[in-house]
Amino acid sequence: MFIIKIKQNISLAPLTAFGIGGRAKFFVEIGSVDELAEAVNFATKNNFGVFVLGGGSNVLISDGGFNGLVIKMNISGMRHAVSGEHVVSMYAGAGEMWDDVVAKAVELNAGGIENLSLIPGTVGGAVYQNIGAYGAELKDVLVLVKAYDIKNGDIVELSNKECCFDYRHSIFKKNKGLIVLGAELLLSKNHKPSLSYPDLKKRFSGLSPTISEVRRAVIDIRRNKLPYPEEVGNAGSFFKNPIIPISNYQSLVVKFPDLKGHDLGSGSVKLSAAQLIEKAGFKGKKVGRVGVSEKHALVLVNYGKSTAKELIDLSRMVKETVKSKFGVILESEVEQI
Question: What is the pLDDT averaged over residues 8-16?
């Protein structure tokens, strides 16, 4: 007896922040591990590929859609426990919206993720991507991830180390056989907010803000700097900030003295992809029905009824121009399906 309802020929565009994408051959929404197991079993028996969709905030789905089973992850639930005076453990299901988790943490006066406020998408997507912003990354507070192993149907627990987190990367990008079910975070009531990001440092100069005040500031900064999907179709930062050898950076600043670079140690420097794209002349540039946001050069936008091909063509144009001008290769942060 089936406990899930599998639909056919479902448009994926309305389920993504870009508002772009073809149809899923098969589509199912799941809210429990049992439902997930049944969905995976259906796909396995019929030899269909599986794609797990969260909030749709960091994907660009092809115009041809997905010729397999799209699983919409709706496993919800949040719980917390206090250990000692200051330590708070929070667990959230993969289908929970990430910013709801941040809001709950701040409500509990549990610090560590307030700098990650207003990042769109779900907890599952946050883990998959190892989200980061304003001097913080998810990996800094994550203890373990519960995941479903497609191969054998087991529920496994992965430690922070086993998740192989890196800049906008995790093991879940490499091993598609693991589906995130939820994550446990370790937060603190004795947390000192990170104010290293320039806008935060400027806003709170000489002050000692609460995590609630930091959250409000981050929300203000994000809303001022970034367009949101309700305004215009986009998936946030389309490209990663490139990391290059320090010797390459030293050569570049001879030609471009104002080029921003963050020394990562170990002989590497992280550049600002937004600055490179702006210097290449793309900020605010419109090409047909797509373009680069006037607010932020890292954001590619769908001005209405555009296609995935148009966005891919624009991204390729940006990459080629940046490479030609600076000798730097940009990598997509948005996952193309």
Answer: 96
pLDDT at residue 229 tops 90: no
Alpha carbon distance 80, 186 (integer Å): 10
Tokens read off for 204: 């709170």
Q: How far apart are CA 34 and CA 91, in angstroms?
A: 19
Q: What kind and span of H or E run contains 222?
A: helix 211-225
160 pLDDT band, cuts 50/70/90, is very high
Q: Annotated catalytic, 333?
A: yes
116, two tokens: 């990650």
Assigned token pair, 117? 């406020």
| Cα separation, 181 vs 198, whole angstroms | 35
With a CB cutoff of 8 Å and minimum separation 6, the contacts of 292 are 277, 282, 283, 284, 285, 286, 299, 300, 301, 314, 318
Interior/surface letters 267-299, b for 16+ CB within 10 angstroms, e for the rest: eebbbbbbbbbbbbebbebebebbbbbebbbbb
298 contacts: CB under 8 Å, gap ≥ 6: 236, 237, 238, 239, 273, 274, 277
Which of 117, 170, 237, 306 is catalytic? The answer is 237
Active site residue 168: yes
H/E element, 185: strand 178-188
Domains, the chain, ranges and CATH? 7-73 (3.30.43.10), 78-225 (3.30.465.10), 233-336 (3.90.78.10)
Instruction: State pLDDT tens for residues 28-64.
Output: 999 999 999 999 999 999 999 999 999 999 999 999 9
| DSSP-based three-state secondary structure for 72 | strand
**The one catalytic residue among 168, 170, 293, 306:** 168
Global pTM? 0.92
pLDDT at residue 2, as a whole number: 61
